[in-house]
């Protein structure tokens, strides 16, 4: 018996391999006026509508309960959201693109590189190579698939003011790419507060609907949350906002198949239990961020330019370590430094 996914593939056209643009809903009887209302609210693909709860659609101005039911029913016809066999899902997993980090040992640790369609979190104290890894990925994601790239552009959201285009030029030279072309393929935005950070994701969705993007970088995810919310009194509000933000990130990863890479800061444990653990530093964001991230990588300093990456949490990778180094050409193997 054919699964829903197989049926959709058999009857689908070329667009079935990417997100379906919102205009496809007109074939299911949704008016152009309602589509404009959805676009104004930040919905640019059929998948975005299908993955959205009904109560969220009801918040869109001009969308009644009857219209919301009709829109969701139309979206569910175009997007396969039912059961499939584990065999079929395994085939899909084998076709996943991995983006090279620039270091062979680190790529081997990650099963080929940074996985697309999921959230990868990099955490560690300052000067552990988080931002340098993000800069390297912004270049390698533009490489051909055969060279460990994603053949796509990069979206870079900077919350700490540490993005440096000149670093991209240096890394591009290492990989034999044209520096100006690399910069043209990176969409950059500086976020100034948590609400602005959320708004940028809506804009990112619109950009991804228009062009092929392979990577979304947020450096750093939690910096603005630590300053815009202070004290235990605002902790619940902070975690709720962070949870909504992470849900949007996961939706973009599902919807467009991009690799989402976010850096995270650490905080020192000052309670009585700190003396019983080897490393008293822990990532910011609590359980909300811990559950949302697919893969969590812990970075720490080594000797000289060497850095150590450890798989802190992953559904399929063992908790092992890899050593890499920081160089003018970005992330390299420790032996090449």
Task: Detail the topology: elements first, then pairings.
Blueprint: H1 4-11, H2 32-40, H3 46-50, H4 54-58, H5 65-78, H6 86-94, E1 98-99, H7 104-109, E2 114-115, E3 119-123, H8 130-140, E4 153-158, H9 165-174, H10 179-184, E5 186-190, H11 194-210, E6 213-219, H12 223-228, H13 235-256, E7 259-264, E8 266-268, E9 281-283, H14 286-292, E10 295-301, E11 306-313, E12 321-327, E13 330-333
Parallel strand pairs: 3-7, 3-10, 4-5, 4-6, 6-7
Antiparallel strand pairs: 1-2, 8-9, 10-11, 11-12, 12-13
Helix pairs in contact: 8-9, 11-13, 13-14
Quick tags:
alpha/beta, disordered N terminus, single chain, 9-stranded mixed beta sheet, two-stranded antiparallel ribbon
Distance between the termini: 55 Å
Uncertain residue segments? 1-16
Mean pLDDT, as a whole number? 89
**Main β sheet profile:** 9 strands, mixed
Q: What best-fitting shape do the alpha-carbon axes yield?
A: globular
Give me the strand/helix succession: HHHHHHEHEEHEHHEHEHHEEEHEEEE
User: How would you classify the helix and strand content by structural class?
Assistant: alpha/beta
Q: How many strand segments?
A: 13
Instruction: Name the helicity range.
Output: 40-55%
Number of helices: 14
Q: Approximately what portion of the residues adopt beta-strand conformation?
A: 15-25%
Q: If you compute it from the alpha carbons, what radius of gyration comes out, rounded to the nearest whole angstrom?
A: 21 Å
Strand arrangement, major sheet: 5-4-6-7-3-10-11-12-13
């Amino acid at each position: 018996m054919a699964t829903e996914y197989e049926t959709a593939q058999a009857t689908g056209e070329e667009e079935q391999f990417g997100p379906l643009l919102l205009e496809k809903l007109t074939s299911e009887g949704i008016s152009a006026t309602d589509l404009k209302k959805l676009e104004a609210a930040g919905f640019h693909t059929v998948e975005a509508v299908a993955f959205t709860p009904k109560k969220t659609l009801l918040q869109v101005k001009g969308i009644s309960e009857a219209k919301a039911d009709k829109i969701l029913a139309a979206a569910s016809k175009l997007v396969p959201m039912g059961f499939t066999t584990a065999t079929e899902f395994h085939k899909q997993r084998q076709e996943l693109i991995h983006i090279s980090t620039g270091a062979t040992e680190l790529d081997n640790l990650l099963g080929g590189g940074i996985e697309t369609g999921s959230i990868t979190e990099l955490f560690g104290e300052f000067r552990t190579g988080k931002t340098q890894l993000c800069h390297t990925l912004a270049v390698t994601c533009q490489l051909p698939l055969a060279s460990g790239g994603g053949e796509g552009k990069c979206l870079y959201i900077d919350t700490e003011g540490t993005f440096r285009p000149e670093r991209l030029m240096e890394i591009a030279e290492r990989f034999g790419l044209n520096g100006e072309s690399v910069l043209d393929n990176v969409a950059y935005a500086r976020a100034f507060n948590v609400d602005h950070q959320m708004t940028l994701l809506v804009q990112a969705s619109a950009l991804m609907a228009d062009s092929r993007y392979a990577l979304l970088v947020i450096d750093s995810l939690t910096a603005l949350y630590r300053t815009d919310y202070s004290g235990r009194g605002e902790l619940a509000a902070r975690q709720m906002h962070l949870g909504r933000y992470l849900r949007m990130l996961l939706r973009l990863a599902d919807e467009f198949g991009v690799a989402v890479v976010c850096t995270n800061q650490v905080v020192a444990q000052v309670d009585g239990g700190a003396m019983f653990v080897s490393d008293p530093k822990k990532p910011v964001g609590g359980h909300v961020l811990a559950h949302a991230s697919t893969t969590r990588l812990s970075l720490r300093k080594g000797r000289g330019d060497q850095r150590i990456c450890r798989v802190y949490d992953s559904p399929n990778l063992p908790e092992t370590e890899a050593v890499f180094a920081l160089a003018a050409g970005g992330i390299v193997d420790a032996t090449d430094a």
